[in-house]
Design brief:
There is one protein chain. The protein is an alpha+beta fold. The protein is built from 10 helices and 8 strands. A 5-stranded antiparallel sheet has the order 4-3-2-1-5, with no helix packed on it. Strands 6-8-7 form a 3-stranded antiparallel sheet.
Length: about 375
């Protein structure tokens, strides 16, 4: 007898639907939190790029704007304090080029200080803005997943190449910056920069504009200026050398001293003269006689008109005293004889001429 065992057919259970995998960036806590709350992997994964990344970029830009605003406000406040205070903090270590009496009388120092402070403030604001936004751009590129190492290396190589190619530009820029810091000259100053001299019309970080006495405008690169002679800072010394011939030196010096004192006492010229004029004495002796030197200390912007007026007064004083006539009478001019012209040499010429006439008659 055979027994057969019937095996029931296998029961296949339906496979559960595959659970989608969650891929979150490292450290993305928001991604895991959204997945736990919603159970939607796509929403959790996209939240990092839709919410976190844009928020970080916006935060970086906001911080950059706030930092730029605060720095520019600090620079503006420093510029205002430097312009308004009697003892500025920005230029305190630097020497003042204008005497105290002249500062109070003309008010040149506050205006000069204001120009310097505004120029340097503009440079500082531009440098601060460029630095802050450069750092912000690099941080944003880092958030976007761009590798900054090749970019920085390329920027370094490009900077070296530009530095070699534009070294004159960098030299001009640095020279202009130090010129402003050291207050070598400013707008309105009369300067001598070597081949060019005149009045400064504009001062930049790269170019200085100078107009000479003929009205020609010169554009001088700051990097090419090796030396600067500023005729407008502080005070000036007007020196006039007057020839008095072989007249009495004491008499001539007294005449010049009286004329120079009259200039200093004239109310029209009192404000331009700082110290009383002096007749320093005999400067040198020439074939025409002695030369006396007169000097007067004036305001820098008045040196030319005071010098012209002093020369006029000294000339008129010598004319009234009769010394100018003595100078002219004491001169002797030697003229070479002209061919065919009789030479008068104490009667010798007449004798020679008579002898020649007698010989001619005999012939």
């Amino acid at each position: 007898m055979r027994y057969e065992t019937q095996v029931p057919p296998p029961i296949f259970l339906a496979d559960p639907s595959p659970q989608p995998s969650l891929t979150c960036p490292a450290g993305a806590d928001l991604c895991h939190y959204i997945y736990q709350q919603t159970g939607l992997p796509w929403l959790a994964a996209s939240s990092y790029y839709v919410l976190v990344k844009p928020l970080r970029i916006v935060l970086i830009l906001l911080l950059a704007i706030v930092a730029r605003f605060l720095l520019q406000r600090l620079i503006n406040r420093l510029v205002r304090s430097t312009t308004d205070d009697k003892h500025p903090r920005l230029f305190n270590p630097l020497r003042e080029h204008i005497p105290t009496a002249l500062r109070e009388a003309t008010g040149l120092l506050p205006e000069r200080r204001r120009q310097r402070a505004e120029a340097l403030g503009s440079v500082l604001r531009s440098a601060a803005s460029a630095t802050i936004f450069s750092v912000a751009v690099m941080l944003v590129l880092g958030e976007l997943g761009i590798d900054l190492a090749p970019l920085l290396a390329s920027a370094g190589i490009a900077g070296i190449a530009i530095g070699f190619g534009a070294q004159n530009l960098v030299k001009d820029f640095l020279a202009g910056l130090f010129m402003l810091l050291e207050d070598q000259y400013g707008v309105g100053d009369v300067v001598d920069v070597g081949e060019t001299s005149g009045t400064v019309e504009a001062v930049g970080l790269r170019i200085t504009t100078i107009r000479d006495a003929r009205g020609v405008v010169w554009y001088v690169r700051n990097g090419e200026i090796a030396r600067v002679g500023n005729k407008s800072q502080g005070w000036a010394l007007v020196i006039v050398d007057v020839p008095v011939g072989f007249a009495g030196v004491e008499e001539a010096a007294e005449v010049l001293r009286t004329a120079a004192a009259g200039l200093a006492e004239d109310p029209q010229w009192t404000d331009d003269i700082i110290d009383a004029p002096e007749v320093l004495g005999v400067e040198h002796i020439t074939v025409d006689g002695a030369v006396l030197r007169t000097a007067v200390k004036t305001a820098s912007d008045a040196q030319w008109r005071v010098g012209r007026e002093l020369r006029r007064r000294l000339t008129e004083a010598l004319e009234r005293a009769g010394i100018a006539a003595q100078i002219g009478a004491g001169r002797m001019y030697v003229r070479p004889p002209v061919a065919g012209e009789a030479v008068d040499n104490g009667g010798a010429g007449s004798g020679t001429e008579a002898a020649e006439t007698g010989q001619g008659g005999a012939t």
